[in-house]
Amino acid sequence: MEPNLATSIGPIQLDKPVMLASGILGISLDVFNRLYRSGAGAVVTKSLSTEPWEGYPNPTIFSVKGGGWINAVGLSNPGAENFAKMIEPNKDVPIVVSLVGSIPEDFEKMIKQFENCKVTAYELNLSCPHVAKVGLEVGDDPELVKKIVSTVKNSTNVPVIAKVGLGTTHYLNTVSTAIESGIDAITAINTVRSMAIDVETQRPILSNKFGGLSGTPIKPIALRCVYEISSKYDIPIIGCGGISDWEDAVEFFLAGASAVQLGSAIGDNWIDVFNEINTGISQYMEKKNYSKIEEMVGIAKKS
Amino acid sequence: MQRNHNHTTIVTVEKVIDETPTVRTLVFSDKVMSNVLPGQFAMVWIPGINELPMSVMISDESGKAAFTVRKHGAASTGLFNVKVGEQIGIRGPYGNSFDLREGRLLLVGGGTGLVPMMRLLTHVKPTDDVTVLIGAKSKDEVFFEDLANRLLENNPHKVIVSTDDGSYGEKGFVTDLVEKHVEQTKFDGVYVCGPEIMMYKTVQSAHSRGIFVQASLERMMKCGVGICGSCCVGEDLVCKDGTVFDGQHLSQNKEFGKFHRNKAGILENY
What we know:
The structure holds two protein chains of two kinds. By secondary structure, chain A is of the alpha/beta class. Chain A is built from ten helices and 16 strands. In chain A, about 35% of the residues lie in helices and about 20% in strands. The longest helix of chain A is centred in the C-terminal third of the chain and has 15 residues, at about 275-285. Chain A starts with 6 loop residues before the first strand and ends in a 16-residue tail after the last helix. In chain A, about 55% of the residues are buried. Chain B is built from eight helices and 17 strands. Chain B is globular. Classes of the chains: A alpha/beta, B alpha/beta.
């Protein structure tokens, strides 16, 4: 029997398990359509704020010698209102709207702006490591996480995901706070705060000095986090961090993720990477006699 | 070991040429950049200031390359002000290149859009009959006319300049000249780089007559490697799918010639 790539992340149903991660390519509906045609199970938008943000000046990205990228784009985005208007005509593409804000009211306001849009889920960015007063600074504050998640859950019937990362508060505490406040799923992890210095000119390369490390170097860390979350909590997980081929994706399923997100791999292998990974997963499932993704989710924990 | 094109390489500016009061060419030694294909670009870091995408200019010395920059915003002004002996960082080359046909060729360029056109001229065959149209606002903004003639000295060729105010060459918009030329001659290939409206009209003039045409697009870029999405035009990413696109493809694109995105990603009219 042909394996079925459909997956459920709690209340979220996707036809394919490989999603576009937030921050990547996510500013045009035409590009979303193209990614969907190229095999993405869903696309996550850039993190949207209540007002448009220009982000940081260049350089905003740096290629690490051992692989991976450090970026400090600075959450540039057209603002939730403009973005909602742009995706209003969308009927086909499963769009997960990523939101970033400092207080519960920011999130409440933005969710109202998406009333006329088809939104598959909201993903709360509690973990961007390079912008002040949002992202990780919010995720590190358990009281604020509690208030934001409860407010968002009260403002919408659409499933809500929390994206966590490695901050000063242990990410497992953030996960448990989010679960207690009613979150539907967890995305783990975000980029890891880092930097790069040019020895010739003797200065930090990124205009913001600090950025977030993504790509292959963080994959083993992300995998460990997914494994830990799934071992400790009964919550659907989306794995994110350095996934670049089907084996990486399968590792995350075996660790407990029901779906995965890609970012940096697109820079290295371009948009074809979605179909390549889908095909690889499918062949693996055939070989191992799985008919559904869920049959392999968390298997590695049993060993 | 071969260099990873995504890693920043530091080079020293060896020569600065004033092309016009607002345009300069900065020459540096770098084998990789000296051999890029026409249409490809580098991300250029001006330490402490900014980083911006630049088409790679040819140099008449082997092993060297250059950037020709017009001072405009903070980043381009920063690059414009780099002096001999100062360092800049480069990564790339990125992007695709032109599909250069043979026979009767028309190259159209405006401002620093002439940079990929000059590099394209180094790839034409001696038998090609080449017409170059250079558009500028006024006489003091004309550059690369002599260079184009020099690069084509072994070819049947014409280099025609038009200025909007008529202070040099033919008076009027270069796109009117394009229209006239494609009306008279069935070119085997038309290539354009310059302001978006110039490219839009050139593509229309050629494509509507069934003439093969390509344009090298410019957009605001942050990463240059297909991650950030800043440079999208409709469903296309200039950094990865371009910079060069066929007229056939562009004629289906809803944003080409009409909109570009600002730093926040909001569509703005041209």
